[in-house]
Amino acid sequence: MALLDSIDRRRFLKALASAGATGALAPQALLAETEKAPAWQNWSGNQRANPANLVFATSEAQLRQALRDSTGTIRPFGGSHSFSAVVPSDDTLVSLEALAGLRGQDGNVFTYGGGTRLAMASAQANSMGYSFNNEPDINLQSLAGAIATSTHGTGSGLQSLSGQVESLRLILPDGEAMDLTRDDGDAFLAACCSVGALGIVSEIGFRHEPAYRLKERTWTLPLQEAMDFVEREKNNFRHIEFFAFPLGEQAIVKTMEITDDPNDSSAREDSNDLLELVCKLAMRAGWMTPSLQKLVTLFVEDSTYIGPAHKVFANRRAVRFNEMEYTVPAEDGIACLQEVCETIRKQDINVFFPIEFRYVAADDSLLSMYHQRDGASLSIHQYFAQDYQPLFTAVEPILRRCAGRPHWGKLHTLGQQQLREIYPAFDRFQTVRRELDPHGRMLNQHLKTLFGETG
Fold first, then answer.
1. What is the pTM (predicted TM-score) of this model?
2. 9 and 274 in contact (C-beta within 8 Å)?
3. β-bridge mates for residue 93, sequence order
4. Which uninterrupted H or E stretch holds 189?
């Protein structure tokens, strides 16, 4: 997470040592990791699988044949950045990694292979004079996986990646292919955010805009001042977000605007080792967490970063975590966040990672968290080696009371009936799903809970 990129590292570590925080917990011991990976696991390591068949198709023809020959449940995987159990299957896992690269350009619509990583696509578009309309701050996801979960950046007038799709090619479980555009109605709107429940997306056409540059500013504020600032200014910046530290009652605020400044800033300093150190310290000495949150923000300097959009959007996140994210109505976002923060303080829940707060514009994808509603997304993180249950169990009821819709790739506890109540187009999606996958071959155990006939 890039939230510490503006920190004065030397002064912070000196202050940490002078406070006696490290003690016997030397950095070498705190950073030690010994764990053997199974056949497949997601980025954080909370989801794992040992499938009977792993398919690495190098062409669409091979992919279609592999689906025809397969039996049982089929699940695709790309960058493996989802925290919910959308991938695991004991039957067939299909890698999209080789289905990558730019396939064609028609004006401002660029068509990419579904396995193309966002970082590759955005860099290639920039080299040809174009940019994605908006991007998230992690760019290692495959494009197919990113739209499957309505992955998003921030900006009250900007849609998620699913909202930027103009066309796509869907390979059904029986190996047949469908080319979809907006003219195809609900089939297209379902496929733009499908959680991989319809088939495997082999190609996606994204609507781009002329390449632009961004100026990012980062600074700190007391938490309530940050909430007031972001709520007041959310429509006055192209991008605005903040990271809330509930226990330390501080926040790191970030805005981005288009700039004509041609001078690139030097690369951001990599803060991941420092973040790992602080997370492990907070986990093992929870009584220090409020002080650590305050100390971190105390040493964050007001900074700016300028460069091509795709470079400014992207941050390197090497410190693993697990995540729950709900999107509530935009107008209720700050009030919901206030209640979440108060609950964390009252229950004295030990969490160092901040809550990321972002605005996203409405779209019409059937399962998008932003379906016909502007949203405020609250992303709740817990360090991967720490039990996330106390934190997520405490805040999820609040997010639900605020009419929150869960991010499909993040952890939540909702079943089919609850999802039907909060996603207005849920039954429209189900109609498309039953038509395209009548035997439910794309549904693993988790997706059966969400979409199965008895879910």
1. 0.91
2. yes
3. 54, 75
4. helix 186-191
